[in-house]
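Input.
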Amino acid sequence: MQSNSYQAINDELNARFFNWRLKDMNREVMDRFPFVSKMKSPYIRWALSTLQLFSQEEQVVILTALIKKKTSPRISGKITAQEQNSLGSFLKEEARVRVQNEQIRRLFSDETPLVNLDKKYLRKCIIQEMQSVFNVKPKRYDGDLLYQIHHGLWRLDTRIEVESTSYAYSQAIQYEISTTEKTESSIRLSPIELTEWLGIGSGTWCFEEVAEVPLVAQEIAKVCSHFREAMNEITAGLDVNECY
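Output.
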């Protein structure tokens, strides 16, 4: 593959993903955070509590700025003055909320009780829910669960980490090349999860009691299914073979 063609494909893939992130962020904001509101991660609760102090229009501007900060300016363009000002206001409010809101402060303290559950049971619950999404058994990878699904020569990797107090997951898209020397290319989107692609930041899916585990597993399965559908949109018509 010529380097300029290789770079063009990578840029197109990342540009499509950036545009999809903005569109999906607008969906989440306008629908009042149907996915994010299900998360009990302390940081995500804190960030969401702060975001909801602003209008939906302002939330879009703030999250656009946060998404741009994590994206190459070559793909996203520069952060505008309006976006920078709104982001500054958000960060100030975020600090104020953390100090003044007793509930948020407890979430960040060592006093917050966390239930420790049997990992075998947690794996069983998440595997049961993910079956409806991928219809395959997961592999074990460094102790985590790994699902690999192919769409043409594109591959979706979904990795789920099971801890005694929470789940964490990430998904990555990459293009596979079959050669005698290597089987995978670097044409890929790095692992990412819901709150990262929305610009909020990384968070885990916590539970405070046993009864919550199946519900949390269901929500993760919905989010993973959502991203699987997005993969088709992001990679549609992107013919890597034209680079050879």
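Residues 179-184 have pLDDT under 50 and may be disordered.
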